Amino acid sequence: MSDLKVRFAPSPTGYMHIGNTRTAVFNWLLAKKLGGKFMLRIDDTDVLRSKKEYEDALRDILVWLGFNWDEEARQSARMARYDEVVARLKAEGRVYACYETAEELEVMRKKLMTKGLPPIYDRGALKLTAEQISAYEAEGRKPHYRFKLIPGNIDWDDLVRGHCHYDAANLADPVIIREDGSYLYHLPSVIDDADFGITHIIRGEDHVTNTAAQIQMFEAVDGKIPTFAHLPLLTGKEGKLSKRLGSLGVRELRAEGVEAMAICSFLAKLGTSEAIEPFYDLETLAQSLDLTKLGRSQPKFDEEELKTFNTRFVRNMPYDAVKGRIKSDEAFWNAVRGNLNVVDDVNEWEQICHQTVKPVIEDKALTDVAAELLPPEPWNSETFNAWLAEVKAQSGKKGKELFHPLRKALTAQENGPELKTLLPLIGRDRAYKRLKGIEA
Ligand code: GLU
Fold first, then answer.
1. At 43, which helix (H) or strand (E)?
2. CA 215 to CA 195: how far, in whole Å?
3. What is the residue with the minimal CA distance to atom 5 of ligand 1?
4. For residues 216 and 222, is the Cβ–Cβ distance under 8 A?
5. 26 lines ligand 1 (CB under 6 A)
6. What burial class does residue 148 get, using C-beta atoms within 10 Å of its C-beta: 0-12 exposed, 13-18 middle, 19+ buried?
7. In this structure, which residue's CA is closest to atom 3 in ligand 1?
């Protein structure tokens, strides 16, 4: 066990989508690879938008993906802790009250923008006199609170982006508490990361500027600054993927038969210098993780590509990887997997081989001859070829004209695994009846 500890911190304001699943994949794999811990943190400070239904669905998907967690926390249960830290930061002057309305802030922002200046808050609130504050309060204005950044350089070595540098003078003091007293994500996240001893934060690059401000927050709460890795965001057809854009839900992919390990394999290698290959267990995938192989450009996520990859994944899937989920034995699985699109398709072949099928007779003369030529059991790997040679000789048919009617009679399907493989699975009794046009 190393002391590495990562967290996946979803906000339960929507379903798990491909973007946050990718963040979970990288965090979980890193913990696995390095023998560290993986924590689930529910970021539910937004009480209005957070829903139990979303949280349950997030957990369900994590379990399905195989991402067990060693520890969990919920931000809404830690308010007293945040209040305590904020009280201290207020006393130290690192957190200060502001009285501007959203409209006033917007006007200020526009003014700066028209002058070509960055829209950085001017800290007007720090210049308010006691009388002005009382006047605002008498008016019924409620303060929101900002975290005061200290001028100077903010630097970190990002595991994906390399050396990162910000000048605090170019950043606005982030708002950490809204007018209604509710917390924004930034400070609670830092307090949690510090309290729970998070050593590595892997998240999307949309958080890079937050990181700059949060590094100062870690210092302010005497927390150890974790190592950061910011993943380039995925882009989809409709631009950046995010739950707000209603992007692809993992639940839907799952319902369509996309395998959990196919998603993990795909997401772990997308945008890296490595080829996307099927991995059939998380342990092996974790051992292959190398953050330095991630490129800096935003990888394109294409749902169709994932689905094509899933087909390839299923068709090569070792029996061990499906064992507990299907009724078939190993020989059956190996015989049919090359024809499946999703794992559940195996049931169709189970039915065709072991349950009643209504045969389709296309060439009665041929299938009648074929029925009579079926050798007695036991059958071995030579049986099919010997039988087929006889059928060919007696019927004079070859190629598609030979195979297609046999397939339709034996399976009632247009396509499928090789007849050579299927015939012994169907067995003589059923095969004979089906070739004779009898439902069997
Ligand atoms: N709840 C935040 C989000 O989903 C977590 C960001 C972070 O990893 O710090 O964006």
1. none
2. 15
3. 9
4. no
5. no
6. middle
7. 10
431 three-state secondary structure: helix
Amino acid 398 reads: K
Atom of ligand 1 minimally distant from the CA of 193:
9
Give all domains of the chain, ordered by start, each with its CATH number: 5-72+186-233 (3.40.50.620), 80-177 (3.90.800.10), 239-321 (1.10.1160.10), 356-435 (1.10.10.350)
Query: Which secondary structure element, helix H or strand E, spans residue 102, and what is its range?
Result: helix 102-114
Q: For 331-339, what is the mean pLDDT?
A: 94
User: How far, in Å, CA of 96 to CA of 87, rounded?
Assistant: 10
Q: Read off the pLDDT of each residue in 349-358 and give the average, rounded to a whole number.
A: 96
Based on DSSP, count helices (H) and strands (E) in the chain, helices before strands.
18, 12
Per-residue model confidence (pLDDT) at position 244: 43
Consecutive H or E run containing 95:
strand 95-98
203 Cα to the center of ligand 1, angstroms: 7
CA 438 – CA 5 distance, rounded (Å): 64
φ/ψ of residue 296, rounded to 5: -95, -20
Burial group, residue 326, by CB count within 10 angstroms (0-12, 13-18, 19+): middle
Asked if the model's pLDDT at residue 238 lies above 80, the reply is no
